[in-house]
Design goal:
The protein is α+β, with helices and mostly antiparallel strands. It has one domain (31-152). Helices cover 53% and strands 19% of the residues. The chain contains six helices and three strands. The chain has helices at 2-25, 33-44, 47-56, 59-64, 70-79, 130-152; strands spanning 81-93, 99-113, 122-124.
Length: 161
């Protein structure tokens, strides 16, 4: 019984290492550095973030946040920032039909309002500035088509292990 378990563990380890090597040599199209950097910048330029920053910088808000009440706890959630290395873009219109979502992982974290750094922030496509939104839709659809091809090119390692 232990031999079977060890064989399964070895097969799993070999498969995982092979896939890691494959993904290093053949990165996912949605993981291309130029696209990730563009989305990171677009997140930082979102109009809602500019509004929150303007709001939280007001002296009245800063003064009120020093009190420990239920209301100021909500405000503190907007004033404080946490670093996120991943966002989840939702409702991207597909070039064919419907919508799709795109997880995006950044090499350099982005600072966003909020106290929960353990949750991946979700961002609706409509929250981006108009120019950024159009470019993200275009690039995401291209990346999605390339991703579909990339996935179909993946070796089926599990079939021979």
């Amino acid at each position: 019984m232990a031999t079977v378990r060890m064989t399964q563990q070895m097969a799993s380890s070999i498969s995982r290492k092979a896939m890691e090597k494959w993904e290093t040599a053949n990165p996912s199209p949605s993981a291309l550095p130029e696209f990730k950097q563009f989305v990171r910048g677009a997140v930082q330029r979102m109009p809602i973030l500019a509004f929150v920053k303007e709001f939280s910088d007001k002296p009245e808000v800063q003064a009120a946040a020093k009190h420990n009440t239920n209301l100021t706890n909500y405000i503190s959630g907007l004033i404080e920032e946490t670093e996120h290395s991943k966002v989840y873009i939702e409702h991207i219109p597909a070039s064919s039909d419907g919508t799709f979502n795109l997880p995006m992982e950044f090499d350099t974290p982005v600072r966003l309002p909020g106290q929960n750094s353990y949750r991946t922030p979700d961002v609706d496509i409509d929250m981006f500035a108009a120019d950024d939104k159009d470019e993200i839709i275009r690039r995401a659809n291209v990346a999605r088509a390339q991703e579909d091809q990339w996935v179909s090119d993946q070796p089926l390692l599990g079939t021979w292990l």
